Amino acid sequence: xxxxxxxxxxxxxxxxxxxxxxxxxxxxxxxxxxxxxxxxxxxxxxxxxxxxxxxxxxxxxxxxxxxxxxxxxxxxxxxxxxxxxxxxxxxxxxxxxxxxxxxxxxxxxxxxxxxxxxxxxxxxxxxxxxxxxxxxxxxxxxxxxxxxxxxxxxxxxxxxxxxxxxxxxxxxxxxxxxxxxxxxxxxxxxxxxxxxxxxxxxxxxxxxxxxxxxxxxxxxxxxxxxxxxxxxxxxxxxxxxxxxxxxxxxxxxxxxxxxxxxxxxxxxxxxxxxxxxxxxxxxxxxxxxxxxxxxxxxxxxxxxxxxxxxxxxxxxxxxxxxxxxxxxxxx
Amino acid sequence: xxxxxxxxxxxxxxxxxxxxxxxxxxxxxxxxxxxxxxxxxxxxxxxxxxxxxxxxxxxxxxxxxxxxxxxxxxxxxxxxxxxxxxxxxxxxxxxxxxxxxxxxxxxxxxxxxxxxxxxxxxxxxxxxxxxxxxxxxxxxxxxxxxxxxxxxxxxxxxxxxxxxxxxxxxxxxxxxxxxxxxxxxxxxxxxxxxxxxxxxxxxxxxxxxxxxxxxxxxxxxxxxxxxxxxxxxxxxxxxxxxxxxxxxxxxxxxxxxxxxxxxxxxxxxxxxxxxxxxxxx
Lengths: 331, 281
Ligand SMILES: Cc1ncc(C[n+]2csc(CCOP(=O)(O)OP(=O)(O)O)c2C)c(N)n1
Ligand SMILES: [Mg+2]
Prior knowledge:
The structure holds two protein chains of two kinds. In chain A, about 35% of the residues lie in helices and about 20% in strands. In chain A, strands 3-2-4-5-7-6-12 form a seven-stranded mixed beta sheet, with helices on both faces. A five-stranded mixed beta sheet of chain A has the order 9-11-10-13-14, sandwiched between helices. Chain A is built from twelve helices and 14 strands. Chain A has two domains: about 160 residues, Thiamin diphosphate (ThDP)-binding fold, Pyr/PP domains (Rossmann fold); about 130 residues, 3-Layer(aba) Sandwich (Rossmann fold). Chain A starts with about 25 loop residues before the first strand and ends with a helix. Chain B is α/β, with parallel strands linked by helices. Chain B has a single domain, classed as Thiamin diphosphate (ThDP)-binding fold, Pyr/PP domains (Rossmann fold), CATH 3.40.50. Chain B has ten helices and seven strands. In chain B, the strands form two sheets. Chain B has a five-stranded parallel beta sheet with strand order 2-3-4-6-5, with helices on both faces. Chain B has a two-stranded antiparallel ribbon with strand order 1-7. In chain B, helix 1 packs antiparallel against helix 10. Chain B is globular and about 50 Å long. The two termini of chain B are about 20 Å apart. Thiamine diphosphate sits at the interface of chains B and A.
């Protein structure tokens, strides 16, 4: 161990860390504030958590509506079963925990008590994909694959604070269970500069370009927009198609954009390469006879390391710089 | 390693002091974290590693060792502090805590650290594993024990009660559970987040031998470990430890209780000074 190094070592991101880059524009707790706003006109909306209210921004709802807030203790299976029961009685619970615990520990409870009954439970989960440096226990690398595979479930992977604010009322407007990947704390603000509005089930072109089409969701759309700017400097024109609704997939828009001749299609996701947006898009294209040059950026099918997030994003290929280099190499 | 004979709690208090000191030095590397917990559990770990447990520092996988499961993986900072004091991890490594490439990640994982028997970042798993280890040790006619440290927040998880019922069913007298009742979890005081009292009555009703002690009183901790290792019948044993977060550093004890605390840069030295002031050896 070399302890004489002058440079400070990168350390694991703290529990309350934001994924925002230094200097990036952010908005605090967009989910919590949007839920409070929604709840004013929807008395059936309730907030529920499994000892992670403070870490999913749901504490803001709890402070605004203490009598509509249920702290269920650190019991994710109970959280989901009880949410099903409340939905059974006509309420609309928003249940929060970390993505790992909803997808892994509570999966059967969600599958059996919520999805099979098509109940109106909204599940919002922090730390999606690789957004924690704590190692596999906190890295929800397969949540999209699991919830995509669950009948009746709608699956949303929003990009930023601007989008989360719009996703919350859209979840309520949709009848049935929804799983949403949640960004918490100081959440990056990006899409307000793109004249963007979220529509459930719709993919949207955020920028056009003739050489590459990057298809992405969640924070990878933020990365894709940065990558497109970097590629522009190299005279490569990259389009970005943002697909926040993973299920149901906007097949029409994806097929239309992927069919434009001469463009390489790159799917970029903050998720294992197994069973997420990449394989969903690949399957769609193949079934439809659309066969562009296809590349896939995603997390490897392995247990990921612990460490500082910037290091891990570089190592596993989802940082802007590594993505840019890889795409250049493929052209 | 030979266990320290009874009546040597002065030496144990020095061990506890050094465990606390190691933990504070690791906390400084991150600037924040689970310091309150490390300080509250140091006396229990000192007793486990320097009074009760059988192990060989140079051979952490020695077949005859007692197993120690850290179910509450975020307490890794505390266990690393004890493993350093036990000579299983070199002291220099504490400067790498939670850093890239370190063997000491923020959340304890078996694959990273010698002496770490399980990966515990997802809470509520330890006692289930302990049931399997307890059964496995009996199958092998081993005299080793399995200790499992878990937290009061973990009492909320259904899986913990499945294991509690099972351990009694299988009469696992080689299993010693230790629950840290620091009355804190992520969203607030544990007793308010989810009422779990009367804990002793519940555990006894589930068929366990139960002791409830002040987990920051070394004599009480030693006595409880001795009783748990003695003949109390064909039952698993639980030591319920009431602890004070930040114990040993008065200004941290007094600070508003929090699961994950921030400590200002200049306060780390003050914390070390406070430990020195309370050192009894
Ligand atoms: C299954 C699971 N659910 C939720 C979490 C998130 N979490 C991490 S620590 C914690 C509080 C657990 O209570 P406790 O260990 O008593 O907290 P402490 O005493 O350390 O403050 C929670 C909810 C987790 N790690 N695992
Ligand atoms: Mg606790």
